[in-house]
Amino acid sequence: MHILKPWHIAVLVVVLILLFGAKRLPDAARSLGRSLRIIKAETKSLAEDDKDLAEKADAQHGRAPYQAEPIIEPTSVHQPGYQPPAAPMAEQPQRVRDAN
Question: Looking at residue 82, what DSSP letter applies?
Fold first, then answer.
């Protein structure tokens, strides 16, 4: 059993022609077709992007995980044998005398 019978479609077409006019219906159908093509292309590109991201994630999964360097506890000032780090020495500016 079909929901739409042929006379339902005929009534629908007559109502559309009365509302929009015969000149506007082809333009409306054309713009509807363009919109559907754009939507189809965008959903296809989104599906391809998701596929590309999944492939990149699989490729990165094969890499070795990052291993951080171990944390070294600083030596305490109160421990025997502690020596503070040497500060870099600033170079003294050289003075040049004029020959005059």
Answer: -
**Per-residue pLDDT tens digits for 30-54:** 999 999 999 999 999 888 888 877 7
CA separation for the pair 87, 85 (Å, rounded)? 6
Tokens of 86: 């040497």
CA-to-CA distance for 26 and 17, rounded, in angstroms? 11
Question: Does pTM surpass 0.70?
Answer: no
**Cβ burial 22-54 (10 Å sphere, 16+ → b, else e):** eeeeeeeeeeeeeeeeeeeeeeeeeeeeeeeee
* Type of residue numbered 47: A
Coil, strand or helix at 36: helix
Q: How far apart are CA 64 and CA 67, in angstroms?
A: 9
